[in-house]
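FAQ: What does a multi-protein file look like?

Like this. Sequence, then tokens, then the next protein.
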Amino acid sequence: MVAQNDDQLPFEIKRVYWFYQVPEGQERGHHAHKKSHKVLVCQQGIVEVKLENTMGEIFNFKLDKPFEGIYVPPMYWGTYTFKAGATMICLASSLYDEEDYIRDYNIFSTYNEE
């Protein structure tokens, strides 16, 4: 897989991080971003992705191919369930900024942009 800043992504990549050695069935995520965009790619194994938008619509995906990814725009609550041996990479549009995170689901579900 190649990821570069060109017209293939709807944002410029500013940060890359990955998940590995996550125990079977363990979840990651449980947050949304106010402004940051990301693309998730599972390099190995299976990661089940559950996304919810601010209107309460839920979208479920199974990442199991290292040549496919999922684009996650801002204001989607994400939960990622890892199957045995799964590794996942995240390409993000911004550097780490704790102020960009919404970590409380109750706040997310009633969030209005100001």
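And here is the next protein:
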Amino acid sequence: MRVLLHSFEGKFPEKTGRTIFVLSEIYENENGLHHHFIESKDFVSEFDSMITTYNLEYMSLNQMKVIQSLWD
């Protein structure tokens, strides 16, 4: 909640030294997402190893619906 309050006050939150990467993938339909999960199963063990080795935090938000697109 501190970060949100800093935003309203026009202040930046304290630096943590961490880097945040955001990867967004948008598929035309659920078949594209399903295909992505099938293809990525070969890399899950390496990804889990990276999370453990480097103490990474991981958040996945999937099967969300696009309600407004810039291209429609």
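Q: Is there any per-entry metadata?
A: Some entries carry free-text notes. For the entry above: Residues 17-63 form one domain.
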